Amino acid sequence: MASETISAAAASRSANADPSTVAGRDLRLLMVVPGLLVIVGLFVYPFIYGFISSFSPQGENAEWLANYQRFFSEPRLYETVGKTLWLALPVTILNVGLAVPFAFMLRTPSRGQRLLSTLLVIPMTLGTVLVAEGLMLYLAPNGWLNRSLLELGLLGSPLRLLNNYWGVALSLLITGFPFAFMMMLSYTTGIDPTLARAAATLGASPMEQFRRIYLPLLVPGLTITFCLTFVQAFAVFPSAVLLGAPAGATRVISIAAYEMAYEEYNWSMASTVAMVMGATQLVIVGIALGLRQFSYRGPVVGGKG
C-alpha cells in the first residue's frame, strides 16, 4: 500500500513538472541563443572589427588617429557628410509628411483600401537599382516626361533632372515613401477611433481632433518612422551613382567609403568613413528621440484599449 502511494506521488510530480526545466534549471533562456549568435555574427563583430580597423591606419609609422585626421582635413571626404545630410533630411521629412495623410485616408477598411495600399507599396519591392533605371528612361532629356511637356508646349527646352540632386532625391522619395507609409499606417490603425468620435460629440472640429488626439498619439510613430526612413536615405548609394553626380553634388558618404575600399584598397580608411557615417546617423537619431522625449511623455503606442 505504501509503495503504491509513493509511486502515485512520483507520477503526480512527474506530471506536474515544468517541461522547460531540467534538474531545476530553466532551459527557456536557451531559445534566445540562436538569435544572439546571429546578432553577434552579423552586427556586433563587424562593428567591433571596423571600429578597431579605423584606428589601424596603413603605413608603418602612421599614428592611430591618422585616418580620422585625414577624413576631417580633406574637403572631398568631410564634405560628403553635409552633402548626404542635405539629401537625406529633406527627403525623409517629405516622405514622412506625405505618408501621414495617406495613412489617415487608408486607416479604416474600405473597398479599395487593400488595392490602393498595394499600389503604394509596390515601389518598395522593386529595389533601388530598378527604380533608378526606370527614372533614367523617364527623366532623360529625351525621356517620356520631357517629350510630353515639350509636345504640350509647356517647356521650351528639356528639364535637366538627371546627373544632379533632383534625380537622386526623386529616387529616394519613390523608394522611401512606401516604407514610411507602411510604418505610419500601422500607427494610425492602432489609434482607437472612438476617441475622435467622443471628441466630436463635444464639439471638436476635425482639425482639433487631429491636433489634440491623433497628433500626440502619433508622435512616437512619427519619430520612429523618421529615424528608420532617415537611416535608409542616408545610406543611399546606387541612386547617387546612377542618377546623381558622384563627383559633385551627390558625392555622398557611401561613395567615399566605396572609393576608399575598392579604388584605394585602403580598408582601414574605409572603416573610418563607415564609423563617421554611423556616428552621424546616431547623432540625428539621438536628436529625434530627444525631441520626442521633450515634446511627448505618454505611452509609445496608441492602442485600441
The CATH architecture is: Orthogonal Bundle
Largest beta-sheet characterization: 2 strands, antiparallel
Percentage of β-strand residues: under 5%
Cα separation of the termini: 56 Å
CATH fold label: MetI-like fold
Number of strands: 2
- The succession of helices and strands, N to C, reads HEEHHHHHHHHHHHH
| Rg on CA atoms, Å | 27 Å
CATH class: Mainly Alpha
Q: What spatial form do the alpha-carbon principal axes imply?
A: globular
**Number of helical segments?**
13
CATH superfamily heading = MetI-like
- The percentage helix is over 70%
**Strand order, sheet with most strands:** 1-2
Mean pLDDT: 85
As residue ranges, the low-confidence spans are: none
Q: Briefly note the structural class of the backbone.
A: mainly alpha
Structurally, the number of domains stands at 1
Protein name: Sugar ABC transporter permease
Membrane topology: Multi-pass membrane protein
Family: Belongs to the binding-protein-dependent transport system permease family. CysTW subfamily.
GO biological process, one term: transmembrane transport
Structure at a glance:
70% of the residues lie in helices and 1% in strands. It has helices at 2-16, 33-54, 66-71, 75-105, 113-126, 128-139, 144-151, 165-188, 193-201, 206-234, 238-242, 253-262, 267-295; strands spanning 21-22, 25-26.
